[in-house]
Design goal:
5-stranded antiparallel β-sheet; 5 helices
Length: 171
Amino acid sequence: NLLALNALMSSSKNPALKFIEVTSADHFDYLGAAHAMIAKKLVSGPLSITAAEVQTAFAEERATAREAADLRSLADARRAGHRMSETKTIRFHLVTRAKGVLQAALLAPEAQGFVAGVVEERTDAKGRPYFALVMKRRQKLGDLLELLASSAKIDALCTKCVAIYNGWDVE
């Protein structure tokens, strides 16, 4: 998407257009956050948007979506019979098409405090290979802040290493 953005910037003759790169996002990721931010700004007066505001809106949207997924995972664990008072092994799932990405993730400082499994090669529904890694940590299910922080830490690791964070479940 960055190549397309640069092509648009160089071909545009309209000085009123502003192009802003959003780190770790594509045009699908960012649309909801951008619409909400622009709507708030339009209500308050003339529209002026900075790159920092755009990046902040995206980061907030991403965190909100991750936390909602975490709450769904916690509800799934409760439906499966796990008690909130129990300390369980939580499995955080990372996937990518490039094996080296997950091998690099194992060495990153963000991986401290987690027990890493083995990078496994798998095949998707179309027969294409991808690689998966499970990072584990023992946690009390009822400690929501710790659970959200662990999920955020793995998500940050995935962003840094260009992997996909595919949520968590209980072992």
